[in-house]
Design a protein that fits this description.
eight-stranded mixed sheet, binds iron/sulfur cluster, four-stranded antiparallel sheet, 12 strands, transport, alpha/beta, 12 helices, Rossmann fold
């Protein structure tokens, strides 16, 4: 086993950065090459059975972070350690083996399942690719068991169906079954219920939560919706323009948040608790173009608490309470 491993964590991302070269038209004729820092100096650690919620507006770098953690992109800088091994050094063959350990559930169950495959084929295909099960009969049994585990019972009722013969919620259950059939240790769910009817979202989320706990998975749930993240996540990281601006245990973050952006995001979440105090501050304007990030704190043009220093200097991350980190000039380390 590699010396990189800290056995308490399934996944560790250390100072990861991802740059893309993009062409930006600065007038109608000339296209200028610029660097888009999609993910900038991100650190994450996830233990077995834990879920980290990644929350932020679209374009903040959540999905790029997920693709880095799954080995679908190579980081420009930094290391990603999964179960003791640095996946950023993997070659193609090692990446194929790693895919067995790291699975993703996509937003749209209508697109993530091959419409020409019956459900049994959708589930058996990854078993064939990764050579699991000694024969077709054994693979079919594995497929039946996982279907029943995700609540599609009796499994025989569903195996011969095509995806279009199922409801959106049933399809998302099949997508979850497909992600779990290889017994992964890392699961990433990208907006797992945003395409589903509101009436079936709670059932899918509670299934996901149950599977993560029962199978001791390290999980990441990506969403723009803090109420969903609150339901499913043990820790929450708030992203803005490629950086994590606040990260803490979820309930701690909901009750006591320190970053003005987190504050503004929480304003948008209806809360049934009558004692829950909603601040009246808001975000100004739109998120800037990520290829032209503002100097200093990149949130400063929208921040109602912006100070002179915020326009010039990037804030450093501080641990404001145990396990609660914030990237904002308003705050200092609790011991400094
Ligand atoms: Fe607002 Fe300044 Fe904090 Fe940035 S560093 S969030 S601009 S107060």
């Amino acid at each position: 086993m590699s010396s990189l491993q800290d056995s308490r964590y399934i996944l560790e991302a250390n100072n990861i950065r991802k740059d893309f070269n993009v062409k930006v038209k600065n007038n109608k004729i000339v296209a200028e090459e610029k660097i888009l820092k999609a993910v900038d100096n991100i650190n994450l650690k996830i233990k077995p059975g834990e879920t980290l919620g990644l929350v932020g507006e679209s374009g903040c770098g959540k999905t790029t972070t997920a693709k880095l953690l799954l080995g679908l992109y190579k980081p420009t800088e930094g290391k990603i350690i999964c179960e003791g091994t640095d996946i950023t050094a993997f070659k193609r063959k090692q990446l194929k083996a790693f895919r067995k350990k790291a699975q993703m559930i996509f937003q749209d169950p209508y697109e993530s399942l091959n419409p020409r495959f019956k459900i049994k084929d959708v589930l058996i295909e990854p078993l064939i690719i990764h050579k699991i099960g000694s024969n077709y009969k054994e693979q079919l049994k594995i497929a039946e068991d996982i279907l029943e585990e995700v609540g599609l019972k009796p499994a025989q009722t569903y195996l011969e169906r095509y995806p279009h013969e199922m409801s959106g919620g049933q399809r998302q259950r099949v997508a979850i079954a497909r992600a779990l059939i290889l017994n992964p240790s890392l699961l990433i769910a990208d907006e797992p219920v945003s395409m589903l009817d509101v009436s079936i979202r709670a059932g899918i989320l509670s299934l996901l939560r149950k599977m993560i706990k029962e199978r001791n998975l390290a999980a990441i749930c990506i969403s723009h919706d803090l109420s969903l993240i609150r339901y499913i996540s043990d820790y929450t990281a708030v992203m803005y323009l490629g950086k994590i601006v606040e990260i803490a245990p979820t309930e701690q973050l909901i009750k006591k948040r320190f970053h003005p952006y987190t504050e503004a995001l929480l304003e948008a979440v209806p809360n049934p608790d009558p004692d829950f105090k909603i601040s009246l501050q808001n975000i100004k304007g739109e998120a800037p173009n990520p290829v032209d990030k503002p100097n200093g704190c990149s949130f400063h043009p929208r921040c109602v608490k912006c100070m002179e220093i915020c326009k010039k200097e990037q804030p450093q991350q501080v641990e404001i309470e145990k396990g609660h980190f914030v990237l904002c000039h308003l705050h200092k380390n609790k011991n400094s």
